[in-house]
Design a protein that fits this description.
Order of helices and strands: EEEEE
Number of strands: 5
Strand content: over 45%
Distance between the termini: 37 Å
Number of domains: 1
Number of helices: 0
Structural class: mainly beta
CATH architecture: Single Sheet
Shape: flat
């Protein structure tokens, strides 16, 4: 079974720039070329981006 990917354009939710993405998968992290924010691909049909979740600090617990 092949993983589903998508290519096309989406809007950055931070700066509203048009972003072109190629062969992205759902939950993949991409970066906006305009504002530099990390974005998560939350949907691939249609392509939808959201701010990527912040990584939690690992204090060795």
């Amino acid at each position: 079974m092949a993983l589903k990917t998508a290519s096309g354009t989406a809007e950055c939710p931070e700066c509203f720039a048009e972003i072109e993405v190629n062969n992205v998968m759902q939950n993949e992290i991409v970066q906006c070329p305009e504002c530099g924010v990390d974005l998560e691909v939350v949907n691939i049909d249609p392509i939808e981006l959201a701010p990527a979740p912040e990584e939690e600090e690992d204090w060795g617990e």
